[in-house]
Design goal:
The protein is mainly alpha-helical and 191 residues long. The chain has one domain. 47% of the residues lie in helices and 10% in strands. The longest helix is centred in the C-terminal third of the chain and has 23 residues.
Length: 191
């Protein structure tokens, strides 16, 4: 995995100035904040205007577009897993701004560690593309995607077991490496 890390870091550094990593506070188990680590996919300070981006957002670099498309920007989260802030499988960590909108739901969801993959990661593997279809991707995320992810997170809490985690890991790997046609199953939300 480390040669892939180095290669990605070189591509990011060659394309645009700034740190190759992106750090963002997310909310973890029992509402504990932690710093999520990703490869940087946007130009420096581009995240200050809005949180959610679509696939063709002009703030996303050319390298960032492919890192997002193939989910390679998520690889540094293995550092979060090693630190004990995340697990491989569990509800994806959210930012505080989003969690406070659905606080009662997250009181249940955040009883477990957030994860690198979950039901929502599989169902919304084309999330950036979907959000790019709307004039306000952030509003679309809050109104359409988050409620569905919350339902999926609650389903994970009901199904949680070693077998469920193993199935989700296998499905994630299969989707990443063998099923690239994310847009064929595209779900379009009502306007």
């Amino acid at each position: 995995m480390f040669p892939v890390f180095w290669l990605i870091m070189i591509f990011i550094a060659l394309e645009s100035r700034g740190n190759v990593f992106y750090f963002q506070e997310r909310i973890g188990r029992d509402f504990s904040p932690f710093i999520l680590i990703k490869f940087r996919t946007m130009y420096i300070n581009s995240d200050r205007s809005k949180l959610t981006v679509g696939m063709r957002d002009p703030r996303v670099t050319r390298v960032g577009y492919y890192l997002r498309k193939y989910k390679l920007d998520e690889l540094p989260q293995f550092i979060n897993i090693i630190r004990g802030e995340m697990s491989i499988v569990g509800p994806r960590p959210e930012v505080h701004e989003h969690i406070k909108l659905f606080k009662s739901d997250y009181e249940k969801i955040l009883k477990v560690k957030p994860g690198l993959t979950d039901y929502g990661s599989l169902q919304f593997s084309n999330e950036n593309y979907l959000l790019g279809l709307y004039p306000d991707p952030h509003e679309a995320y809050i109104n359409y995607i988050m409620p569905k992810k919350i339902k999926l997170n609650k389903r994970y809490l009901r199904d949680m077991s070693f077998t469920t985690d193993l199935k989700l890991m296998v499905k994630t790997v299969l989707k990443l490496f063998f099923y690239r046609d994310f847009y064929a199953t595209m779900e379009v939300f009502p306007s």
